[in-house]
Write a structure and sequence with these properties.
It is a single chain. The chain is an alpha/beta fold. The protein has two domains: 6-205 and 381-405, Glycogen Phosphorylase B (Rossmann fold, 3-Layer(aba) Sandwich), CATH 3.40.50.2000; 222-379, Glycogen Phosphorylase B (Rossmann fold, 3-Layer(aba) Sandwich), CATH 3.40.50. It is built from 15 helices and 16 strands. The strands form three sheets. Strands 4-5-2-1-7-8-9-10 form an eight-stranded mixed β-sheet, sandwiched between helices. A six-stranded parallel β-sheet has the order 13-12-11-14-15-16, with helices on both faces.
Length: 406
């Protein structure tokens, strides 16, 4: 196990994100044996102009003005840096070479903030861990000269218009110049190996300790106790980009005696959808991560009704591990990546198939299956996930020591 190293985490997700975060979970696990500086994405100019009244934007403005410190200790060995800067919104720039010039200026200012925090915390040398951010952070290896630069590809972000514009060209370059690359699916690993042979597929982690009810003491939340059973449930962001609204609607229409419960924040497409007109569809707003296991406990069957597209088809759906950790039967859309879970999940391609598979899941669930699902989920802990990273990092650090010796 790697001990006594310093890590700087950069990525797309801020520490105060309202939903679960892979980057935060990795940082917390790494901080058990190493010191970690977690860097919030800088406030950008468009956020500053459009969302000044938002609480999170106000918090960052307070840091920029100097009324609040930029470094916050959130746990032993773990600090969060909120950069004292407004990053210019440059993604609209058309000539790619000109975009790179402005993007490097943003990274240079970010590098100064990281260097300041590293000095304050006495992090003399460190490993940079970049969580899926191929634009912001692209130049940090050159600007900060870390001991190692690691890139984690776990989401098809370049399929999103914002990142596609410049990220399609820059991500392969970032992969190529990274010292180590990790991926959570075979598809992403194959993509990265075309640019960097030091690419490793390591799957995904899950906070199994959070999603645990071994003694059966977890209470089903009051929001569910008045809802008619069986309950077919989903937890996570409700966004048209990832979920099939029509599919969910048809499941509810085909089986009005079932209750469909959707827990999480809605995008505009969900808020304006006809799902809200169906009596057996229940929306529950965003919940603290700590409450999600109790909701999952209250579901009779868990679903992952994904839309099939370039974003979802090859991504690792973390919620599957969470559902399994609670021992629940699962029915999911048969995306390319889901073959990874083929022994544990029932697959469906349309609403009729979903109904059929949910009926089977309701009828055939047993305590033995429940226990087997829990046992399998325990192989996907964050400790195991980070342990795979440590193995490769230790090899690279040993190689660096040998170079110094010679």
């Amino acid at each position: 196990m790697l001990r006594g190293e310093n890590f700087v985490f950069v990525g797309l997700q801020p520490w105060d994100i309202s939903i679960g975060s892979t980057a935060k979970n990795i940082a917390q696990e790494v901080s058990r044996q190493n010191r970690v500086l977690y860097v919030n994405p800088p406030l950008n100019r468009s956020e500053w102009l459009l969302y000044r009244s938002d609480a999170k934007v106000q918090k960052r403005l307070n840091v920029i003005s100097g009324s609040t410190g930029c470094i916050e200790k959130v746990a032993d060995n773990l600090w969060v840096l909120t950069p004292r800067m407004v990053a210019e919104s440059v993604n609209f720039i058309e000539p790619h070479s000109l975009y790179r010039w402005f993007n490097k200026r943003n990274d240079a200012r970010l590098a100064e903030e990281i260097a300041h925090a590293a000095h304050e915390l006495e992090l003399d040398s460190y490993i940079i861990f970049n969580d899926n951010s191929m634009l912001a952070g692209f130049y940090l290896k050159e600007l900060l000269n870390p001991k190692l630069y690691i890139y984690l590809l776990r989401d098809n972000v370049i399929a999103v218009d914002y990142h596609k514009k410049h990220g399609t060209r820059m991500q392969p370059e970032l992969v190529a110049k990274s010292d180590l690359v990790f991926a959570n699916s075979d598809y992403f690993a194959e993509y990265c190996r075309a640019f960097n042979p030091k690419t490793y597929m390591i799957g995904q982690g899950c906070d199994v300790s959070l999603y645990s009810d071994a003694e059966g003491l977890l209470e089903i939340p009051s929001e569910l106790t008045k809802i008619h059973r069986p309950i077919v449930g989903y937890t996570g962001a409700l966004t048209m980009r990832r979920l099939d609204i029509e599919l969910i609607m048809n499941i509810a229409i085909y089986r009005p005696e079932w209750s469909i419960v959707l827990v999480g924040p809605e995008d505009e497409s969900f808020r304006s959808s006809h799902l809200h007109e169906l009596m057996n569809v229940h929306f529950i707003p965003t919940q603290p991560v700590e409450r999600l296991p109790s909701f999952i406990k209250g579901f009779d069957v868990c679903i992952n009704p994904q839309a099939i597209n370039v974003i979802t088809n090859w991504n690792y759906p973390l919620k599957i591990d969470e559902y399994l950790a609670m021992g629940k039967p699962i029915v999911a859309t048969n995306t390319v990546f889901m073959s990874y879970f083929e022994s544990w999940v029932r697959f469906a391609g349309n609403a009729r198939e979903y109904v059929t598979e949910i009926e089977k899941a309701l009828a055939e669930d047993t305590p033995e299956l429940h226990a087997a699902r829990v046992a399998y989920a325990k192989t996907h802990t964050w400790e195991n996930f980070v342990g795979k990273i440590y193995e490769k990092v230790e090899v690279e650090l040993d190689a660096l020591k040998e170079k110094v010796t010679y």
